[in-house]
Amino acid sequence: MTDRPTRTTKTTRTETAPRPTAPPPIANAPATNPPTTNPPLVPLRRNLRFQALWAGQASATLGMVIGDTAFPLLVLALTDSSTAAGAFGAVQMATTLLLGVHGGAVADRVDRRRVLIAADGARLLALASVPAALSFGPPHLAHLLLVAAVIGATVAYGGPVRLLALRSVVPPEQLSQALAQDEARMSGAALAGPPLAGFLFGLGRAVPFLGAALASLLALTAALVVRFPSPHASGAAGPSGSGAAGVSDSGAAGASGPDAPGAGDSGAPGERTGAGALAGFRVLAASPLLRAALAVLLLINLTGAALLLPGMVLLREHGTGSAGIGLALAGEAVGAMAGATLVSRLHRLAGPGVLLLALAWSAVPVPLAPLLPGGAPTVFAALFLFGLGIPSMRVMLDLLVFRQVPDALRGRVIAATMTLLTAGMPAGTLVTGLLLDRSSPATVLVAISALLAAALLVATASRTLRRAAWPTAGTGRTAGSGESGRTAASAGTGASAGTGAPQD
Q1: Residue, of 37 and 98, whose pLDDT is higher
Q2: Per-residue pLDDT tens digits for 90-108
Q3: Which pLDDT belongs to residue 16?
Q4: Which of 47, 86, 192, 425 places its Cα 20 to 30 Å from the Cα of 457?
Q5: For residues 291 and 289, what is the distance between their CA atoms, to the nearest angstrom?
């Protein structure tokens, strides 16, 4: 009898024993959220804001190239003066250079969308004034030179904003791909613009300017329809209220980090440059890597501008007609269009300094192409091979310079870079003209190639360029000399504006 209660009690305890439970939460312990995954990136082709801006800017570029060809033809037809025809381009370029620094400052201090609308609208009115004047008779040369000044001003103020507008609607992971597509826009316009301008001019003197005005109207429409963030817009917020970078209509998040408007990474170049219109030049001068890279790019620009005239003269002496010369000079644009697909591959091969030097050395034999057998096809092939690397150089410039500065300073840095690189073009043309007065075209071309090679020997000896590496992911800073560009490329994350290897 005494054993049963005991067994019953034991059994009851076993049945009523409490089940294991989670320990009570510790006071003041940080809350843990379930892991979240970022939504997949929308393909660039479905980013409606980017594609609309790109289409508008492609129209603007095509209209500019048509005008660059049609205006000298019109001036020649009206005045029969080569000097007057050259004056149009000189006034346009001089205006761009004079106002370029102020244009960068405006891009950093004023609502960028309004600046772009004003620039496109001014260019539309200037271009439309030419066919309007032609309807009453031959326009005065002073009118055409005034139009040249207006167009030059729109380049100075609209140029930096166009670059900033495109990057503001593209996430950092796709920025290099977007820039490669934008390079295709420029190359396509350079290829199609001149022959299209000649064809339209044959239909009537006013026709190419009507076409250029229509292209400007399309660009203005895109600027009016597409809203993109600006650090000085009302509230400094994107359309969706997600901050200055905003979210694109296609669902792609805007840029963050160094690319976000108003971002001021303490490690980014330009943090101690201060305000002022010349702040962009101080940023470039403060970095040994940027000074060396821009010097090499300036050499390439000088070479390209210098070889144009003697190359054309030599081809003509060998019996090549105008159509053949135009076809030969189109090689660079065709190569650049093809090179837009090679950007990520070339960037994976080496660090930025080594790649830049390799592309620059590929320009050394180009001035010698007119001296080789084959004539125009040989020149076309040489320019095509060099043009393959142009998109990679442009994206490289963006990686090393534009992405490494805060957005509030980026407009001035872009304007300073454009001013420095553009200034080399008239200098190269001037030097070539002086040399052609004293030497044969063949001698001038050999001298250009030799001078470029000598300058590149000095640049190649610089450890700053040879040891440069792609910016490290997530930091926005350029990696140290021991960092390999291929290492950054193989990571394949593309997670930030500082990612070294562009993604396809």
Answers
A1: 98
A2: 788 888 888 888 888 888 8
A3: 45
A4: 425
A5: 5
What is the Cα Rg of the chain in Å?
A: 29
- Of 382, 398, 413, 384, give the one whose Cα is nearest residue 347: 398
CB atoms within 10 A of CB 318: 12
Q: Contact at 8 Å (CB) between 382 and 369?
A: yes
C-alpha to C-alpha distance for 200 and 372, rounded to whole angstroms: 35
Half-sphere exposure of residue 494, counting CA atoms within 13 Å on the CB side? 17
How does DSSP classify residue 275? S
What is the DSSP secondary-structure string of 276-337? Answer: STTHHHHHHHH-HHHHHHHHHHHHHHHHHHHHHHHHHHHHHHTT--HHHHHHHHTHHHHHHH
In what helix (H) or strand (E) does residue 354 lie, and over which residues does it extend? helix 352-361
Long-range contacts of 484-491 (CB under 8 A, 24+ apart): 484/351, 485/347, 485/348, 485/350, 485/351, 485/352, 485/354, 485/355, 486/348, 486/349, 486/350, 486/351, 489/344, 489/347, 489/348, 490/348
Residue with tokens 């934008």: 182
**Percentage of the chain with pLDDT > 90?**
14
Q: Residue 36 has which token pair? A: 């979240």
Cα angle vertex 221, ends 152, 53, to 5°? 80
HSE at residue 368, side-chain half, CA atoms within 13 A, is: 11
Question: What are the tokens at 444?
Answer: 């001038």
Assign 210 a pLDDT band (cuts: 50, 70, 90).
very high
Report how far apart, in Å, the C-alpha atoms of 423 and of each of 87, 96, 299, 389, 430 are.
17, 10, 11, 22, 11
In terms of pLDDT, which residue wins out, 366 or 424? 366
Average pLDDT across the chain, whole number:
75
Whether 27 has a pLDDT exceeding 60, the answer reads no
Instruction: Round to whole Å and give the CA distance between 278 and 271.
Output: 14
* Of the listed ranges 62-71, 165-174, 214-223, 254-263, the one predicted with least confidence: 254-263
Separation CA 272–CA 289 (nearest Å): 17
CB 331 within 8 A of CB 380: yes
As a whole number of angstroms, the distance between CA 56 and CA 208 comes to 18
Say yes or no to pLDDT of 187 above 70. Answer: yes
Residues of the chain by 3-state class (helix, strand, coil), percent to 5: 70, 0, 30
- Identify the DSSP state of 370: G
* Tokens read off for 308: 């144009």
| pLDDT band at 256; cut points 50, 70, 90 | very low
DSSP code at position 247 = B
| Region label for 351, one of left (φ > 0), alpha (ψ between -120 and 50) or beta (otherwise) | beta
270 to 147, 258, 400, 481: CA distances (angstroms): 36, 12, 13, 21
Mean pLDDT on 284-309: 84
Q: Are 420 and 293 in contact (CB under 8 A)?
A: no
Which residue type sits at 282? Answer: R
